[in-house]
Design brief:
Elements: H1 5-23, E1 29-33, E2 36-40, H2 50-57, E3 66-70, H3 76-84, E4 88-93, H4 97-108, E5 115-119, E6 134-139, H5 168-176, E7 181-191, H6 198-207, E8 210-217, E9 226-232
Parallel strand pairs: 3-4, 3-6, 4-5, 6-7
Antiparallel strand pairs: 1-2, 7-9, 8-9
């Protein structure tokens, strides 16, 4: 199910208010999701549904293997995956303020030997070598629409946790992910069929030779988002 332009505009307005409220946050806060308590710094996206996603996605963690989380924010899922038994986790985010935040949560939960972190615009900050190929790559993608006409450079750090104007980073994710996956690695992403521009999502999938299959629909009694596994297509 997809929605029309008027509905997307209404959704965008609702989240404009959310952005204003979170931009006003000037101190650290604690958040508990999926039984895990972390601290969230100002300028870092405040997790709201991540715990719900983790409850399901935990069964897809590569236990004993490696995982890359794009757009990690405060590092909540990265820490969760490490504590669940993933041997190597690389947590990345485009927002520099996230790095100190991730470090604090990693130390708090004593997973320093498992979790590494670095600033990266999707894959741009990751060295492409055999040590940086992963069993699983995941992105809780910021699919909320934006009708302001702004570019990505014009939105703030908190807002980058929910929006990707023009889906430019989604396209990069799909174009470059194969370079960082192991031969049998799996590529996952979240996207909302009713909250996001789903036709644009499917167009990018087609143009980058991925076929998405829905792994879980959280909208049945929960947030309006779905978890997708992307299957590589012959180019």
């Amino acid at each position: 199910m997809t929605v029309g332009a008027s509905s997307l505009a209404s959704i965008a307005a609702k989240y404009d208010t959310w952005v204003e409220d979170n931009n006003a946050r000037s101190s650290k806060v604690e958040v508990t999701q999926a039984g895990l308590t972390v601290v969230v710094h100002p300028e870092v996206f405040l997790p709201n549904i991540t715990g719900v996603i983790m409850d399901v996605f935990a069964s897809h963690y590569p236990i004993g293997g490696s995982m890359l989380e794009v757009g990690t924010g405060c590092g909540l899922m990265a820490v969760h995956a490490a504590k669940a038994g993933v041997k190597k986790v690389l947590a990345t985010d485009i927002v520099p303020a996230c790095m100190e935040n991730i470090a604090e949560n990693v130390a708090r939960h004593e997973v320093n030997e498992t979790v590494q972190w670095q600033v990266s615009d999707v894959f741009a900050g990751i060295c492409e070598n055999d040590g940086n190929k992963f069993d699983v790559i995941f992105w809780n993608y910021p699919f909320i629409p934006d009708n302001s006409g702004r570019s990505y450079d014009e939105i703030g750090n908190v807002e980058r946790g929910i929006r990707d104007p023009g889906q430019q980073h989604l396209r990069v994710y799909c174009q470059q992910a194969r370079r960082f996956l192991k031969p049998k690695g799996k590529l996952y992403i979240t996207f909302g069929q009713t909250l996001g521009d789903f036709p644009a999502f499917m167009k990018i999938m087609e143009e980058t030779n991925w076929m998405p299959s829905m792994v879980h629909d959280f909208s049945e009694g929960g947030p309006q988002v779905q978890l997708w596994l992307l299957h590589g297509q012959t180019q």
